[in-house]
Amino acid sequence: MSTTQPNTAIMPFTQTDLQSAGSVYHIAVGFQEKYRAKQVALLAKAAANGAKLPKELDEELMNWQVSAKKAVKHIEEQRKPFTEKAHAFIKAFTGIENTLGKELYDPIQQLRDKSAKIHAEEAAAARAKEQAELAAKQKRIDDIAQLEAQLRNGYAAHLTNVKQTMLTVYSGATLGQIDEAKEVLEQFVGAALSDESWNTIALVGDAELIAEVRTQERFDACADHFTAEITKYAEYLLSLIPQRRAELEAGVAESKAAAELARKQEQEAAAAQLAAQQKADADAAKAKQAATVTVMVAQANREVESPKAIESYSMVVGSIDGWRAVVEYYLTNSGTGADGLGKIKLDQMAAFAERQAKATGEMITHSGVTYEPKYKAVARATKRKVA
Q: What confidence tens digit (pLDDT) does each residue in 4-28 have?
């Protein structure tokens, strides 16, 4: 690292220097006005004589030029001590500014850029990992939701089948069988959902997830519902036995009540299947949203904890075909017309593609073209005074 020290030997202009420089400047202004007036007169005289000048006039013009050159030289000699001192001042200040703005500044910036790159790369890796984990969680949520829908539909189908069996007993009984049908229906009052029926509900999926879905808690809930539904249905059919007996005694073979019950059961089965799928979809959407929010919060916290950095790209073109791709990309996207194209260099085309990558994320897809990310730490706004 350079240890250049500012030149403190240069002293400011004295009051005498300023007065002398001002005097020289005013003399120079006077020369300017004098020679301007003479030039105007000579140009007017030359215009009156046309393009071909008389020898005497040409000599007069030449003498003006010689005199003007001498005046310029005289002014340069008079002002030189002051302008040299001014240039020395400028150079001294420029040296200090370069030391502060580059020699001292750049090592700090390089440290921050290196750190910003590490933060950005770690954040990118964390995002990729989180997205992969989120995708896995969402798939698991979908799989569980489908298994739950299968379980609900399987239970609903079993419940419908039992009700259909009861309805068949009721509607299929003859006059001689009506008492027997009544006894069979009475056995359904308080009926329980058997373990065998529960475990034979077909679930297609991962065995571990099936074990999470087919739980004792769900069995208990379905068992309570099964008993309540079957008991209520059995009691309703039993209440229709006197009516059915009268229909059979009157010679009516088909029960209108049974037909209505069959139609209603079909509607209930379709509604139950739709409700099962809707609940599965709703539960899955809610679980997915919760998982997504968790990832978003983690990413937001990481942005707060990491230093702000600007990411840009440096393009590396490794083949002639790669350069062809760069030229094609430039011609397609830059909007440059034929008139200005001849002035555009290949490096300028590459720079355009780099800016597009930063601004839009669009990159040239070619085996001969690669993009290398670059990171620059950004200074945060501050109200602190200069030290």
A: 454 445 556 677 877 888 889 999 9
